Amino acid sequence: MTNELTPKFNPTEVEAGRYEKWLEADVFKPSGNPDAEPYSIVIPPPNVTGKLHLGHAWDTTLQDIIIRQKRMQGFDTLWLPGMDHAGIATQAKVAARLAEDGILPQDLGREKFLDKVWEWKDEYATTIKEQWGKMGISVDYSRERFTLDEGLSQAVRKVFVQLYNKGWIYRGEKLINWDPKAMTALSDIEVIHKEIDGAFYHITYQIEGTDEFVEIATTRPETFLGDTAVIVNEKDERYKHLVGKNVILPIINRVIPILTDDHADMEKGTGVVKITPAHDSNDFEVAMRHDLPMINMMNNDGTINENGGKYEGLDRFEARKQIVVDLKELGQLVDIKPVRHEVGHSERTGVVVEPRLSTQWFVKMDELAKNAIANQTTEDAVEFYPPRFNDTFMQWMENVHDWVISRQLWWGHQIPAWYNEAGEMYVGEEAPEGEGWTQDADVLDTWFSSALWPFSTMGWPDENSADFKRYFPTSTLVTGYDIIFFWVSRMIFQSLEFTGKSPFHNVLIHGLIRDEEGRKMSKSLGNGIDPMDVIEKYGADALRWFLSNGSAPGQDVRFSYDKMDAAWNFINKIWNVSRYILMNAEDVSADAVSSALTKVAIKTAGNVTDRWILTRLNDTARRVTEQMDKFEFGVAGHILYNFIWDEFANWYLELTKEVMFGEDEAEKDITRAVLLHVLDQVLRLLHPIMPFFTEEIFEKLPNTSGSIVVAEYPKVRPEFNDGKASEGVAMLIELITAVRNIRAEVNTPLSKAVPMLIKSEHADFLNAVSPYISRFTNPSELTIAKDLAVPEQAMSAVITGAELYLPLAGLINIEEEIARLEKELAKWQKELDLVNKKLGNERFVANAKAEVVQKEKDKLADYQEKFDTVKARIAELKEN
User: What number of other Cβ atoms are within 10 A of residue 462's Cβ?
Assistant: First the structure.
C-alpha cells in the first residue's frame, strides 16, 4: 500500500505538524449549525508567568476530551482560550528579571515598567500557545482573550462601578493580610498556612507605679511595639485588682491600659493578653470594642517604621532577634518555649504574611454569598462532580468574609476611582471631566477580572453579542479542587449578580498530581515534572491517556513513568493492530464494507466471531458514552482498554486468522470489512483522549475523508446486537483459556496434540466452531457431544455451558487433581456466598435496577451449576 504505517509507533513523527494542519483546516471552530445544540467551555486561563505545569495539562486534557467528543457527537462546540495576567506573580517575575541588570521598577516608572511587562506577556503567551499545541488542545484561537483586553477591561470597570453604586464595594481601613515582599494586600484565600518551628516568648510588663509585673506570651515579640492595651477576663480573680491600671511597655516605655474583655481566656496561657490592633485580627476586634488607638509599627517592606523607636529600619525578623536580646538584658524575658505552629505565607511569593492595618478597597460579600447559596436550591444550580464539592462550595460561601480587592501593584486593572485636592472621590467607568483628578494607583485583585471570565469573554456587557446569546452559560468547567475558593466561587456569585444565570452547568473537579511517593510536587522538593519533557519522550497521546485514566473525579493522582511506559505500549499495540488490518484490507471499498455489515446484521453472511465483535463494539460504545457523560474518564478508559487489548486484539484478530488463512474468499471479504469497521470505530472512540495517532491512522484507512476531529462519534447500532453470538464466543474463549491453563498445569505445550472431550448442551454450536477450537487448542482427537462417558483419568474444567476433559493418562496424579478441583470448588463457593449475600440484601434488591438484579441472579445460576459439576467430578474421582 502507499501509506503504510511504520513498524513501530514513533510519537515524535506522528505528532509533528499535525496540530498546525488542524488549525489550517479550521476544524476547531464552532460548526455554526443553528439546529445543533451548543456546548461551550472557556479554558481556565493559565497565567503568563511561565510554562504550563502538569496540573494545567490535566485541566486542558480533560476539557479537550469533553469538547472533542461533543464535537464528534454533532454539538455546536466552542472552546474559548485565553490567559490571565496574574498581577502579583507576573510583576514579581518581571521585577526579578530587571534586577538581574541592576534595574528597579521605580527606576523606570509605572508606564515604562508596564511596557516591560507587556513584552514578558507576549513572550510567555507565545510559549504557552506552543505548549497547548503540543498537548493538542482543540481551541478556537479566533476568540482568544486576555484578562487585560479592552473588552474585558470594560467589563471589569462596569462591574466595579455597579457594585460600588449598590454599596457593595467600599473603601476603608481594616486589618488585612500583607505580603512584605510583593508589598501588596492579599485576600484570605491567597494565604497558605504552613506549619513551621517557632517559639512562645514569655515577657513581663511592669504595672505602672509598682514593682508588680504581669506575664504575657507571644510568638511575635516585635509586635509589642504596636501594643495599645493588655486585657484580662473580668472573672479572673488573679487580676481583678489590676483592672483600670496601666502597664509600661518594656524598652519603649509607653504606658497602656489594663482592660477586661472576654477574648482573654483564663484557661489559656497566663490569662493576660497583649493587644496589637494594627497587626492581629482578634486584637483589631478588641480595639474596635474599646475604641483603642491602632499603631502600625511596620513599613510596606516588612521593616520597622518610626513607631519602633531604636528598631526603626530593621527587618521584622532582625528586630525580633534584637528585641529578645534587649529583653533578656532587662530581665523581662522569662522564658522561650519552642512550638510548632501554623503561620500564613503568601501564595504568590512564599514569604510570611503580616496582618496589618491598611486602607484598601473591599467587596461586601453578604448579599453576593446569599444569592449564590440560594441558587444552589434552584434548577439553575451548578452541578459539581463529585457532588461532595458542592458542600465545600456552600461551606465557604456561608463563612465568607469581605473580599479585599485592591493590590499595591502596577500590573493589572487600575481601580476606576479618582481623587482631587478637595478630598473628593469619583468612581466611574471613565475618568471624570475637568482638571485636577488623580486615579487611584492601586490595581484590582486578578481574581476580580477572572471571576467575570465565563461571560466577559463572550462579549458581555453587550448582552446582544452573538457569542453571549449562543454559548452562555457555558456547559462545563474543569479545574482542580485547590481553586474552588479562588475562582469557581467568585465566577458563580459574579455571574449570578450580573447575568442572572450560573456561569456553567457543570463543574468537574480533579485533584492534584503528586510524585510516585504521593508528595505534592514543589520546587523545594525538586520533584516537579515538566509535561513537555514527558511529551518529548512518550508523546502527547500517552500523557493524555495517563492524565485521563489516572483517577476518579476529585481524587489525586500519582505520576509514574511505569504508567507512561504502559500508555506508550497500549498505543503501540493499537498501532500494530492497525498495520495488520491495513495490510490485509487496503483494497476494501466503502460499498463493500457497507454491504458486508448489512449481511452480517441480517445473518446472511459472516461468522459468529464477526457478529460477536460487533455486539461487543456496541456494548463498548454504549458504556464508554455513558461514563464520559458522567465525566468518569478513568472508567471509560478502562472499558476501552479491555475491549481493544483483550477482545479486539488478543481474541478477534487471532480468531480471524482461521478465516484469513482459509480458502473461502467471500468469508474473507466479510471479515476484512468487519476488521476495518471495528478499527474505524475504535479510533473514533479513542480520538477525544488520544487525538494525534488516531488521526494518523484514520487518514490511512481506505474510504475515509476529512479529519477525524469532525468525524461522527460511534453510536449503538441495534442491528448488530446478537446475544447468542456474544454468549457463544464467550463460551469459546472460556474453553480455549481453560485448555491452555490445564496444559500449563501439567507442562504439556500447545505443540503436543492431546485428546479432548467436551460435554455440553451447546454441542451443536461448539461443533460449528470446532475449527477455532482445533486451531487454538491442538487436540489429537476432538469429541463434542451433549452426553458422553467421562474418562476416569482426565484433567477437567467447568466453564459456562460446558464441561471439558483432557484424558492425560500418565501425566496426572489423581490426588493432585482432586486437590486442584477442591480449590476450584472453594472458589465457586466464595462466588456463591458473595452473590447470595447481595441478593439477600433487601435494600439492594429494592433499589437496584431490574436488569442489575437479574444479572446477579444469572450469576447465581451459573456459579451454582459450576459448583455442582465440580463437586460431582470430585466425587467421581474419589470413587474410582
Answer: 14
* φ, ψ of residue 803 in degrees (nearest 5): -115, 135
| Contact (Cβ atoms closer than 8 angstroms) between residue 224 and residue 249 | yes
Nearest 10 degrees: CA dihedral of 624, 630, 632, 635? Answer: -40
Give pLDDT tens digits for 770-824.
999 999 999 999 999 999 888 877 888 888 889 999 887 656 667 777 888 888 8
Give the global pTM. Answer: 0.85
What is the rounded distance in angstroms from the CA atom of residue 51 to the CA atom of residue 61? 16
Alpha-helix residue ranges (DSSP H) falling in 358-429: 366-375, 388-398
Q: What is the average per-residue pLDDT within 728-748?
A: 89
For 590-598, the CB contacts below 8 A with 24+ separation are: 590/702, 590/703, 592/669, 592/673, 593/673, 593/676, 593/677, 593/703, 595/673, 596/669, 596/670, 596/672, 596/673, 596/674, 597/673, 597/674, 597/677, 597/720
Amino acid, single-letter form, for residue 132 = W
Q: Measuring CA to CA, how many Å separate 854 from each of 591, 827, 836?
A: 41, 22, 13
**Tens digits of per-residue pLDDT, 329-366?**
999 999 999 999 999 999 878 899 999 999 999 999 99
Least confident of 20-29, 186-195, 804-813, 822-831: 804-813
Pairing of strands 443-444, 406-407: antiparallel
258: closest CA among 221, 271, 175, 202?
A: 271
Tell me the one-letter amino acid at 859.
K
Quote the radius of gyration of the chain (alpha carbons, Å).
36
Give the whole-angstrom CA distance, residue 263 versus residue 286. Answer: 8
Q: How many residues does the chain have?
A: 880
Q: Assign 3-state DSSP to the chain and report helix, strand, coil percentages, each to 5.
A: 50, 20, 35
Contact status, residue 441 vs residue 397, Cβ threshold 8 Å? no
CB 644 within 8 A of CB 629: no
Specify burial of residue 173 (Cβ count, 10 A radius: 0-12, 13-18, 19+): exposed
Q: Classify each residue of 721-737 as buried b or exposed e, where b means 16 or more C-beta atoms within 10 Å of its C-beta.
A: ebeebbbbbbbbbbbbe
Q: What is the pLDDT of residues 492-522, one digit of tens each?
A: 999 999 999 999 999 999 888 888 888 887 7
* Cβ neighbours around 871 below 10 Å, total: 16
Q: Are 510 and 60 a contacting pair, CB within 8 Å?
A: no
Residues facing residue 796 across a β-bridge: 805
- Say if residues 541 and 19 touch (Cβ distance below 8 Å): no
Q: What pLDDT shows up at residue 179?
A: 93
Residue 108 is placed in which grid cell?
A: 523606570
Closest-CA residue to 92 (of 449, 442, 447, 350)? 350
Counting Cα atoms < 13 Å in the Cβ hemisphere of 654 gives 16
Does the structure show a pLDDT above 50 at 2?
Answer: no
